Amino acid sequence: MLSQFSYPIICSQKFSETLAFYEDHFGFTPKLEMDGFAVLERHGMDDVYLGVINSKHAALPEEHRKPVQGLMLS
To answer: Of 3, 27, 36, 41, which is the most buried if we count CB atoms within 10 A?
Structure first.
C-alpha cells in the first residue's frame, strides 16, 4: 500500500504535461491516478515514487494552490 511510503508531491498548473515529462524522461509509470492527482512509480524500482497534483485541486488548502517555483529532487 502506498501509505507506508514517503514521496515528494509536485504542485503543477500543467498537470498532464508534468506527468508526461516524468514518464517520458525518467521512466516513471502511473501507480495511482485520480482526478487531478497521480502517484508515479519509477520503472523497475518498487520504492521510488513521485506525486503530482493539479495546483487548483480541492484537496489543497487555498493558500497553497500555487505552482512550484523551484524544485530539486535527488
So the answer is: 41
Whose grid coordinates read 504542485?
11
HEC profile of the chain: CHHHCCCCEEEECCHHHHHHHHHHHHCEEEEEEECCEEEEEECCCCCCEEEEEECCCCCCCHHHCCCCCCCCCC
**Phi, psi at 65, each rounded to 5°:** -85, 65
Contact (Cβ atoms closer than 8 angstroms) between residue 34 and residue 23? no
